[in-house]
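Hi L., both proteins are below.
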Amino acid sequence: MHRLSKLYPFWRTLRFRFAVWISLFLFVILIAFSLFLYRSLKSNLSDALDDSLRDNAVQVATFIDLEDPNDVNPPSDRSISIRVLDSTGAVIYSTGTYQHVQPSPRIFETVLNGQELFTTLADPFDGDDNIRLFIAPLSRDGEIVGAVQTVQSLDGIDDPLEQLLVLLEISVPLFVLIVGIGGYWLAGRALAPIDRITETAARISTEDLSTRLDLPPTHDEVGRLATTFNTMLVRLEEAFRREKQFTSDASHELRTPLATTRTIAETTLNRPRSAGEYEEALRDILEEVLRMQRLAEDLLHLAREDGFDTVQESERINIGELLHDVVDSVQRLAEAKALTLTCNATENLFVEGDSGALMRMFINLLDNAIKYTPSGEVTVTAHQTVDHQVEVIIKDTGIGIATSHLPHIFDRFYRGDPSRTAGGTGLGLTIAQAIAHAHGGKLTIESEENAGTTCIFTMPLAAQPHPDVE
């Protein structure tokens, strides 16, 4: 047994219960088989004995000469005793060990009425044994003139049955015990990988999720369990790594504005200052507070997106109207930088989703496009694809993103390009991707340094409403 198995009594283990159940199952089968075998053998032996008694009685009744009864061949089976009686019950002929056994008057009277009978009696020589008696009418010319009786000891049946019973009483428990021990051993071998999985799980902690099951590859249930367990550990390790990194990054992002705010406050209070200096310090503190507020809001929104695999409150949305509203809300930002911001969306494009979440996603994408486009234009287009998807494209002529940074742009707090960090929290694209996934959509970004960036969002079209539905 493995170390963990020793912590529990062996009778509580799965292998012990398996051995007990298999033993009980086998015991029931063997008992049923033994009863069938015993009864079948007893029935066959009894039928054979009765047939022998009847055949010998018929032989004697056929060939015996009532005028000279001694002129008859005795049966070849010397264990059978014969007794021939006339109609008064007087003995005409008898031979064998049990030739003096007499049937009861009631039985004799029944035979004289034309019936033959079998009966079992106690052995007159040994009260613990039994004998089998057969008596049949003796007829001549259609008239019953007496009876023929054959008798044989039942030792030929009882002895083999007793030997069989003793053999079964010994062999059945022994065989069940052997199978139980074998089942316990086989269950131990079959469940050994489960023990290893348990021990591995016990060693795993949030500090170290790198442990893996080192089991030989198999295609049985245990092999699939081990593979699934290892796959789960990989996912957990990655999730813990990302959460740890996220916590560390969030702490770092919050520490910077807090430290800046404290430094500004301490420096300002270091000595008396003019009203203008105090006003400037308050503006700096307000800027840092607003930065922390944006970061806190982004963190809360990202936490809500992580908590849902699907949109909780869905509605039918005209994506064209939504995009025009979003463009109108950020138009002043574009005008402040003298950028051309246009929107060209096909009419009557409907999707199912959360309008507030989708608006936040598009605002994040447009805010980035405007922020990192020194001059030129930002365009928004929306149309239906051939595979019944809505495709929204936001394209700018800005500074672009280096190819080496593209695989990481959706990572939380990613700061690969210093030119793209000013004023942001590093969570905008992460939130946008989470919203896209929650709506069953896909968000991809194509970019080339100093050549602009293109954001492509696709999601399924909404089903057409039924004509009867308002």
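That was the first. Here is the second:
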Amino acid sequence: MTPKQEQKFRKLLVNQRSELAAELAGLRKEDADTKVDSSSEVSERALLEAERAFVHRHEHDDANLLNKITLALERLENGSYETCLSCGGVIPMARLLAKPSVALCLPCQKAKDESSSGM
């Protein structure tokens, strides 16, 4: 990877991390501001609980992505950014451009997804 490419990926990852951190802070504030009043109608309480569950799931997903971005930045710093964490092969530039936080080459990612889904 050239220094110019490295700089480009660092900027992409840092920007993505900043946006995600801001979004995560907003979700946490939104969740804290959501109050379920015991005197509310059952349907209103159910809707609020469903919204809260959605926000928690989104928070969880954002936190996981934030962790992946941090790890990608660490790999960028130590020179292993393009290396698949599973097989040690090279992650193609097109894949890194499509998803800068990725840590696996496509064949390893597919194998992981298949084993996770029980196929």
